[in-house]
Design brief:
Blueprint lengths: L3 H16 L7 E2 L3 H10 L4 H5 L4 E4 L15 H6 L1 H10 L4 E2 L10 E4 L16 E4 L3 E2 L5 E11 L2 E12 L2 E5 L5 E3 L1
Parallel strand pairs: 1-3, 2-4, 2-5
Antiparallel strand pairs: 5-7, 6-7, 7-8, 8-9, 8-10
């Protein structure tokens, strides 16, 4: 597995995200189908597995992902074209996640002002940040970015591609860059 291209993409994504932090006030994120996507994916995240007490979820969505095309196969780019366009549009806005998660474990939405003295804020506890979810027109395909920290040297970040069949979401292949430590 080639690490250097991924590291460059990850650094670019983090830089873009940091630059977008002052993009104005956040709006309430009320997309019901997006919470179904989150509820499907969160129990599959490393930080969820490591959660002994409460999973902390960043309340503001992550923003601006210009490097998305380099992280998907050409087939996935074509198949998810409408969802990617929606994702790129919706990720320009800062959204506030709402307490609509049904994930089977205690969780808490936390803002950027979480005190740095908390162990969770120092990378010692389970913490997840997510983007808003991009959908195709009929909401049968979706793309989302999740960054998951499960401890000081434990974490992962990746785009996720999903398809909905028979009212259920399932993750599908097509992402070619992901990070893990």
């Amino acid at each position: 597995m080639r690490q250097r291209p991924f590291i460059a993409v990850l650094v670019a994504l983090l830089f873009i995200r940091a630059a977008a932090q002052d993009a104005g006030p956040a709006r309430r994120y009320e997309n019901t189908e997006a919470y179904r996507v989150y509820n499907f994916l969160l129990p599959r995240e490393e930080s969820y597995a490591f959660t002994k007490q409460t999973l902390l979820i960043g309340q503001e969505t992550m923003q601006d992902f210009d490097a998305i095309r380099g992280c998907l196969t050409s087939e996935a780019q074509s198949k998810f074209e409408d969802a990617i366009a929606d994702f790129n549009n919706i990720a320009k806005t800062k959204w506030l996640l709402q307490p609509r998660f049904q994930i089977g474990k205690p969780h808490k939405l936390v803002g950027q002002d979480i005190p740095s003295s908390l162990p969770e804020a120092q990378g010692e506890g389970p913490y997840v940040e997510m983007s808003a979810v991009g959908f195709n027109h009929d909401k049968t395909r979706a793309i989302v970015f999740i960054s998951s920290m499960c401890g000081r040297l434990c974490g992962s970040s990746s785009f996720h591609l999903l398809e909905k069949t028979d009212a259920n979401w399932k993750e599908v292949p097509g992402v070619i860059c992901a990070g893990a430590s």
